[in-house]
Automatic annotation (TrEMBL):
CDD domains: NUDIX_Hydrolase. Belongs to the Nudix hydrolase family. The keyword tRNA processing does not apply. Keywords: Hydrolase. Pfam families: NUDIX (PF00293). It comes from Paenibacillus agricola. Residues 24-157 form the Nudix hydrolase domain. The keyword Hydrolase applies. This is NUDIX domain-containing protein. Its cofactor is Mg(2+).
Amino acid sequence: MRLISRITDHDFLGGDPIFIDHVSRQASRGVLVDNEFNVAMMFMSQLNLYKLPGGGIEEGEDKQEAFLREIKEETGFDSEILHELGYIEEHKNRNQFMQLSYCFIARVLGHSADTMLTESEIELGMQVRWMHLREAIREMEHSAQRCDDHSTKFMILRDRILLEEASKRLDVGEQNSKEAMYGKYKRL
């Protein structure tokens, strides 16, 4: 997988970037699209912020399985991976925490079922909201303006970078047909 970005405290606080040499957590996340090019965004009503579906890789899972599981748990949809985007490193020196996120584009298969949110996700008022990719990028920019929590700023920047990366791959502004999107990628 290719490196998409390294996010450090420098991105928010200035100064020299500091890179942590050990991985604290591995995660899988990315962009889930439907047949109309809408993106699943996870809205956290208690924070008035958005994020992309995804989370930690559980023991015995590979990165693709973890992403598909997270999509199912958070959105209720079965899905398939269309494209591997790469990975993002989040070096939170202030917290001595480095998260490595493997990033993908997936598409919805079939109808949704009930979500399986964690207690903390329920407390945050997490719910899926569908929107056009450009709108999702704007929402992440608005979320960044509203956020004052240092760790959450990493999540918002990471997810905005992922949406921008997906935008390059999907070329949504140029394509109108489902065949153009789904025919362009080979499944992993």
